[in-house]
Amino acid sequence: YADSRDPIYFKICNDAEGKQCCETLLNDPTKTNFQKGQVDVFEGNLLNQCQTFPITNEIKTVQMRLEKEDGWRGEYVIIGLTNDIEVKCPITTFIDDVNEAREMTLTCGPN
Fold first, then answer.
1. pTM for the complete prediction?
2. Residue 18 DSSP code
3. Which of 8, 10, 32, 100 sits at 20 to 30 Å (Cα–Cα) from 46?
């Protein structure tokens, strides 16, 4: 799909109201992130404060937010939980600055 040179943030919430959330910048400083044809893995310290964020319920949605204007489209996000469960969130649209659409919500389900 399309690559991006701009910062992308990832937000996950514990509740349907979006009051108990964790947001982090997805950035691996050892490589160029979000390049076409590349799979990026963010784990451990790369998740910053979200590394230890407790997931108390089933994950239904996550949000991704673009900080600047270089649009991006990936294929999916997979979230691995500590109980060896994986949740997959397909990406079905671009995230870019067209019509101020710098944020997208992904619907997730079991992988």
1. 0.83
2. S
3. 100
